[in-house]
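Person: I keep going back and forth on a fold encoding question. Show me how you would write down a chain together with its backbone fold. Please set it down just below, with no commentary around it:
Helper:
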Amino acid sequence: MPPQEAAGRAAPVVRPPAADGFFYGGQAVIEGVMMRGRRQYAIAVRLPGTGEIRVDRGALTAPIYTSRFWKLPFLRGLALLAEQLHLGTRSLSWSAQVSAGAEDIRIGKREVAVSLAIALVGSVLLFFGLPLLGASLTVHRSGSFWFVPVEGVIRVALVLVYLSLIALIPDVRRVFQYHGAEHKTINAYEAGSPLDVAGVRPASVLHPRCGTGFLLVVLVVSVLVFSLVAVFNPNWFWLVASRLLGIPVIAGLGYECIRFMARHRDNPVVRAALQPVLLTQRFTTREPDDGMLEVAITALNAAREGEEAAAEVRRPQAAGVSA
């Protein structure tokens, strides 16, 4: 939902996406926010002791960010997965190290790698293995029509219960508040509102391109894809293999769905379809305080400044080539 126009403030000018369809995106990190531009990213983190906002900015030079191949339909969904593993992990790691360093705690790369590996294995067992086991105990036959829907319902229930439980942890709740700050800032920017706390505060904490909403779309798409697999009455080996091999297909389809809905959000039918997607975000967003909004605004401004600086560098190079 776009922010409301404040009294006495000029009407906002809606900023459309770039000609190539690019949108700014981001994610919450520990005590901060990461914002991603086309070729630049920026992370802003508030230090626990001093309250200072520290910024890390960098270029996105890997082929996954620059190659036109990874911007093709369906393939860009795979690029999103790779980005979450690469940039998302890097951002979380940097924010954790900065926050811990401010309190004289040292976190090495080994500790971060071990933690991420444990989280990845745990996620696979919890959100893939357990639903398969639950469906097999309930339906008994993997080739049954009901096997995949039951598996899907169990998976959705596990995800929502998990998100509800971790939201009770104070530190996680703060991450969810920064998630809300990230959404508010991008919503305000896309609506053309001033990028200050007063301009961003009225914006919604919900956004149609959110990763949580993407997760719900992926879960729905997975039911449709795995239903096709069930037609072949697979044994347990192929049942498990299909869940792993199907991840790229489901990610590609799911991303195209969420992208389509974000672009056509004003269509009544699409707006109705978006409601469950937006509702799911209530599990991972909370209203931020003004300090959190300031951090999110700092991150977006830093990413935009990086984009402008990179564009200035590219302009003379392009002129030299054309000459």
About this structure: Residues 25-305 form one domain. Confidence is low (pLDDT under 50) at residues 1-14, 16-20.
